[in-house]
Amino acid sequence: MKQSRAVNILFVAPCVFAFVMIIVIPFFFGLYYSVTDWNGVSNNVNFVGLRNFSNLANSPDFVYSFLITIAYTLINIVLINIVSFVLSLVVTSKIKRRNFYRAGFFVPYLIGGIVLGYIWQFILNNILVSLGTTYSIKFLETSFLSLPHTVIWTMAVVNTWQYAGYIMLIFVASIQSIPSSLMEAASVDGAPFFSRVLHILLPMMANAFTISLFLTLTTSFKQFDMNLTLTNGGPATRFMDTPVKASQLLAMNIFNTATANRMAEAQAKAVVLFVALLVVSLIQVTVNKKKEVEM
Amino acid sequence: MSDTLKLNKKNRILKPEMVVLELLTILLFVLFMFPFFMVVLNSAKTSREIIFNAIALPASWKQLVTNVSLIFNNPTVDYLGAFFDSILITVFSLLVIAVCSAMAAWVMVRNKTWWSTLLFMAFVSAMVIPFQVLMYPLVRWMRVSGNFINIRLLGTIPGIVFAYLGFGSPLSIFIFHGFIKSIPLEIEESATIDGCPRSKIFFKIVFPLLQPIIVTVLILNGIWIWNDYLLPLLVLGSNGRVQTIPIAVTAFAGAYLKQWDLILTSTLIAMLPIIVLYIFAQRYIIKGMVEGSIK
């Protein structure tokens, strides 16, 4: 018995040690620094109360980042779910080479945000623009990344390109778990394809949509890598009479604030991001619980 | 195979809607693959060629070899070094995460005491914490604690592997936990009666049974670690001795502004390992991704 207890402790020790050192301690430091004047250099850290947070509410660049992050997230949720759903219908139909297509649609997910940001910067700034000028297609002549009102949409399209294949896999797994007799019966009864999708497939896939909704939500809200290499926050625009970066999402705003050595302010922004994600996760847990009861 | 959507077998051949569907799929597929074609195409061009015509086929594919060797022999960015460091960091982190998380998860499932439940809850709830809240305190903490125990944690491979164990273990423990619960206890009990020590039970009996779920854990963590940017940037620094591929790619793009021949070739080299791996292990990767998300 004594020996088994020693084994228990030894077995959990590496993970627990790493977890405490890497997540728990820095996390509490992070919360603490958000109410101080920490500048990252000096060891002299003073408590300042909620000053950092009240400053955020009056900081146009933060309010702007917060708002466009929400907009970006909403666009992503719509785009990714629609595209993934179409893809999942296609690769579960009876077309030839469907497994090949399924494998292909997933490839963008394997590419990291940093790398794909550069690739798409090239596509959008060079390929599309050169297509536009060569064939005088007016709307392609200026890059979508250089206009404040198109840049967020463009980023969402790129993000959809990356994530749709992944969400598609989740949808495919869900479609394949639906008994095929159900769809066949409906088709024998003469229900057209569209109403079969609407009345049988979609309700049966509710669970997969919940998973995809929260995955898209959390990843879009924390988006950083692609933002950095695709737009680096640009172009410039104005918000509340202040110049701001048109595509600077929340995570990049935090990063740039810290790079400017305003560490405590960056921590306060990060805490806001944390609270937002916490709320989302709590909603997810309650929704899932409710669903279990219904079933 | 899925027979969910389409009608019975007789109608399969030469139905007009199937032809339309097939064409639509090919169109979607070409659209999804377009960025990759462009990367390959332009990696085989000189900078002048790209500016002159980014869409045309390269004049000579030999330029691809020239570009690749330009990257590997570059004096400012040690790309080859970053490549090997990335491989070392990914492989060691995956090994440590898989073994340590499996051990910890096993104890948390089999040892039914309040503290193992509490530990499990702590790991699971930590998954909500966004990296941004703790990344700057983490750097400071790693410096301070590294000085204290006289081991350099910042800028070294052991340091970043340790950090990956901390960040990787919550999800990995969660996935292992779910799987181990489904393994019947009888197998372990009979070994206990035969006098087999507990540590041996795990490594000789339980660990081999975990093989399918280990593949899932390796894939989920592998894609993340190989493409990760912010943690290596903060722990290793942008011009430290140890580098990773994503950092090298940004260093390239920063040093050779808009020299797309070099930037695109560097992204091509960055993507290649993971795509080659995907071609060979496609079945496992797709299965692993689905299992990892549905939980």
UniProtKB/TrEMBL annotation, chain A:
It is found in: Cell membrane. Residues 66-284 form the ABC transmembrane type-1 domain. It is a multi-pass membrane protein. Gene3D superfamilies: MetI-like. Coiled coil: none annotated. Keywords: Cell membrane, Membrane, Transmembrane, Transmembrane helix, Transport. The chain crosses the membrane at residues 7-33, 62-91, 103-123, 135-156, 163-182, 197-217, 270-287. The keyword Metal-binding does not apply. Its main location: membrane. One of its GO terms (biological process) is transmembrane transport. GO terms for cellular component: plasma membrane. InterPro entries: ABC_transporter_permease, MetI-like, MetI-like_sf, NrdE_NrdA_C. PANTHER family: ABC TRANSPORTER PERMEASE PROTEIN (PTHR30193), INNER MEMBRANE ABC TRANSPORTER PERMEASE PROTEIN YCJO (PTHR30193:SF37). This is ABC transmembrane type-1 domain-containing protein.
TrEMBL record, chain B:
It is found in: Cell membrane. Coiled coil: none annotated. One of its GO terms (biological process) is transmembrane transport. Its main location: membrane. PROSITE patterns: ABC_TM1. Keywords: Cell membrane, Membrane, Transmembrane, Transmembrane helix, Transport. This is L-arabinose transport system permease protein AraQ. It comes from bioreactor metagenome. The gene is araQ_71.
